[in-house]
UniProtKB/TrEMBL annotation:
Source superkingdom: Eukaryota
UniProt xrefs under Gene3D superfamilies: Phosphorylase Kinase, domain 1, Transferase(Phosphotransferase) domain 1
Upper classification of the organism: Eukaryota, Fungi, Dikarya, Ascomycota, Pezizomycotina
Assigned keywords, A-Z: ATP-binding, Kinase, Nucleotide-binding, Serine/threonine-protein kinase, Transferase
Residue ranges with Acidic residues bias: 30-43
Protein name listed in UniProt: non-specific serine/threonine protein kinase
């Protein structure tokens, strides 16, 4: 029998309570033993690129709360017993597919050890010991947290997974640590340090190449620490990387779709050595039917008895790597590097979202438009899939990124002899070179986070 939400969360709380020196997780003493339906682990959900509102409120605007938000917060305080004794809700700061996030003041900050507080740590490192008055003032300084209210419709397994991975990543650089978690009946909240950041849509057009280098230094640092632990984030995109351009500092959030590498792996053709793979392709149903077709048009078996292929395809449309779209059954941390490449493409093209597809097929066609039919055929075969399209406008070899970026940034004009007037600056070319390493269709050849930090585009960030 699969566990209910209550059992799973209680399980985490007991396990965590046992690990004293680690993150504290508090169990709500008033909680009942309510059941919550267990849903299947979602294999194929795809978030829309614009579904999340990643808005950030500045300190000045924080008290201006919309009536509807105030009502929502009041309801939350009423239904989640005891929360107002611990936190003062300030505003709603994010609404995603699986949660609502609130900014709140931690009323009991000084009663706990706060190893997670990076600001406090860096202050301690740099400043001289406080005077008595400063110490008293510090005590009264408001400490903010982000309260992530996970929707009750989320499966218990998923909630457990998110909290567990956050716990495992507690010492990872540039990853938002979990302070604690609470449950009241079927409602679970995760408490995280509040990170001041700006909405990506506000700043992505203003970033110079030097700024973008710093952004990627911060993002790849976070990815390296996640990947080092053998964890795939699965949903790398701007709203999940909270970045403050002013301080060139970012933290990775949202491990709602993350998983450990090799979870649910089945042999995929990409795991065979190239010779073996070629032999298998030659003997495949597709090749045989193609060879048998007189007019060289492939045919399809009328009754296809092969089991349908299942693979985790969770992520956000437009940021998913080709192997995710092609249902590769041995996905690796390389999928996150692809998504990082899409973020870079957004900066360089100044288009957000860059990809905007209705479904997976559409998403594959968007990639075909850029990479060309030849590369898509090769990439598909790599995972034992056959790619075919009869859309005549797609070229065999696709388009280079330089051309795409010039076109997107209205620099594609030509002189009277047909020569392109503009070209990318040397700095932009270096960025494109790095992006091509992230947007490598073959995951085995894609740059890793570790290598990315040594790439001249990222390594020279100052
Ligand atoms: N620690 C935090 N500090 C500040 N804002 C946060 C924090 N965590 C989340 N947010 C805001 O809430 C939004 C949604 O949070 P996220 O964890 O991505 O939830 P979801 O799984 O619903 O996407 C983020 O895009 C961000 O704007
Ligand atoms: Mg999110
Ligand atoms: Zn594969």
């Amino acid at each position: 029998m699969s566990p209910t939400a209550t059992e799973v969360i209680q399980g985490i709380m007991r396990a965590r309570a046992a690990q004293k020196e680690e993150t504290h997780v508090h169990e709500d003493p008033d909680s009942g033993e309510d059941d919550c339906s267990d849903e299947d682990a979602v294999m194929d959900e795809s978030r829309g690129p614009l579904e999340e509102s990643g808005c950030t409120h500045t300190e000045e605007s924080e008290e201006e709360v919309d009536d509807s938000v105030a009502e929502d917060m009041a309801r939350f305080e009423e239904t989640f017993k005891g929360i107002s004794r611990r936190f003062r809700l300030i505003n709603r700061i994010g609404e995603g597919t699986f949660s609502t996030v609130y900014k709140a003041e931690d009323l009991n900050y000084h009663h706990y050890q706060n190893e997670w507080d990076v600001d406090e740590k860096s202050n301690m490192k740099w400043s001289s010991p406080p005077t008595k008055r400063q110490a008293a003032q510090k005590k009264h300084k408001a400490r903010f947290v982000a309260i992530k209210k996970i929707y009750v419709t989320s499966s218990p397994i998923r909630i457990l997974n998110e909290l567990e991975l956050l716990h495992d990543l507690r010492d990872s650089e540039s990853v938002c640590p979990l302070i604690t978690a609470f449950r009241h009946q079927d409602q679970v909240i995760a408490v995280l340090p509040y990170f001041q950041h700006r909405d990506f849509r506000e700043y992505f057009r203003e970033m110079t190449i030097s700024d973008i280098r710093l952004y990627f230094q911060s993002l790849t640092t976070a990815l390296r620490s996640v990947h080092e632990q053998g964890i795939l984030h699965r949903d790398i995109k701007p709203t999940n990387f909270l970045y403050e351009p002013l301080h060139a500092r970012g933290v990775l959030v949202d491990f709602g779709l993350a998983e450990r590498e090799e979870t649910d792996w089945h042999q995929c053709a990409c795991g065979y050595d190239p010779q073996d793979r070629r032999a298998r392709i030659e003997n495949s149903v597709h090749s045989n039917s193609f060879a048998a077709a007189t007019n060289a048009v492939p045919s399809y078996p009328k009754v296809d008895n092969r089991p349908s292929r299942r693979a985790n395809r969770a992520g956000t449309r437009g940021f998913r790597a080709p192997e995710v779209l092609l249902k590769c059954t041995q996905q690796t941390t390389a999928i996150d590097m692809w998504s990082a490449g899409v973020i870079l493409l957004t900066f360089l093209s100044q288009r957000f979202p860059f990809f905007h597809s209705a479904d997976d097929i559409d998403a594959l066609l968007e990639l075909t438009n850029i990479f060309g039919k030849k590369r898509m055929r090769e990439t598909s075969l790599l995972h034992g899939q056959v790619f075919e399209t009869n859309i005549p406008s797609y070229s065999e070899n696709g388009h280079g990124f330089e051309k795409i970026i010039l076109w997107c940034t209205n620099r594609s004009g030509r002189d009277s002899s047909g020569r392109r007037v503009a070209s990318l600056s040397p700095e932009e070319q270096e960025a494109v070179e790095f992006m091509e390493r992230c947007l490598e269709c073959d995951p085995a050849r894609r740059i890793t986070a570790e290598e990315a930090l040594k790439h001249p585009f990222v390594a020279s960030a100052v």
